[in-house]
Amino acid sequence: MRILLQFPQGLKSKALEEAAKYEKEGHEVFLSATACWGACDLAIDEAKKIKADKLVHYGHAQFGDKAAKSGGVEIEYKLYPITVDLEVLRSALPLLAPYKKLGLVTTVSHLHQLDDMKKILREGDRSNPHEVLTTRGAMAILEGQVLGCDSSAADKLAGKVDALVYFGGGEFHPLGIKSKMPIFAVNPYARSARRIDEDIEKKRKREQGMLIATSQAKSIGILVSTKSGQFGLRAAESAKKKLLALGIPRVAILVTGEVDFNSLKDFNSFDAYITTACPRLVDDAERVEKPIVNLSMLPRLLQIIKETRV
Ligand code: SF4
């Protein structure tokens, strides 16, 4: 069988080792060398170009409950669980003591330890056990899983829990949480635990600022990515029509695979951008030196434009 192996950036160093396993079984193996940041990004076009029978995508679970259109290429998701020391969660218990009911979310890399995490939180520090709730998201379909673009496994618990615990490396994932509640990030790599809902609020305010700035723009670029799980051409076309109808002088749809901020800067023509691609591009607005808003903000944006451009 001809097989294309695809790894996210953090796992590309494992590629040769994994390739050897398939080669030993007699398969012809190819490695996708393009950047991959998420489950939204399956190398289907590359697989088709090299006439691969199968694409093996490492490190991510399926994106949403509908299988990606694979054009005849078989797709296998191979999780890459990373086992970490959970002691840091135990040491966060004093911080969590005031909250009886806790929601818990983590990334796909640590989901295999979810039951152990729950056990630690449920036991609490003996005199103070917690009730622990988890649920499933929309695009992040595994119990307790969050993605940078899908925090619904956390948001659905708002109102049902007293606080939320995110367990995992970095703060990219918890900063995407939309609901307001006490949120704690427990990081097994930095061995740290801290409350981060103030940071989330700051991010929200920054996004509001970019929304207002975009409403004043005379030229808007709408970003469309051709990545398998990000492609939003129809939504972009509909947004373009609505913006033109409200009198925005210039609106263009920009089609790309990977969004390259340097390439965007070279246009030197747009006052602001709307992304129909990865919603977390808004975090990188400084790199393109222009405001970026998510497509999900379009109704609010149109409303502001209506109210302010009489
Ligand atoms: S759309 Fe963005 S946040 Fe969502 S999985 Fe893809 S890269 Fe990650």
Please describe the structure with a list of short key phrases separated by commas or semicolons.
Rossmann fold, 11 helices, 20% strand, four-stranded parallel β-sheet, 13 strands, 310 residues, binds iron/sulfur cluster
SSE arrangement:
Layout: E1 2-6, H1 15-24, E2 28-31, H2 44-49, E3 54-58, E4 74-78, H3 87-91, H4 93-96, E5 101-106, H5 114-123, E6 131-133, H6 152-155, E7 163-167, E8 183-187, E9 192-195, H7 197-215, E10 219-225, H8 233-245, E11 250-256, H9 261-267, E12 272-275, H10 285-288, E13 292-294, H11 298-308
Parallel strand pairs: 1-2, 1-3, 3-4, 5-6, 5-7, 7-8, 10-11, 10-12, 12-13
Antiparallel strand pairs: 8-9
Helix pairs in contact: 7-11
Bound molecules: iron/sulfur cluster.
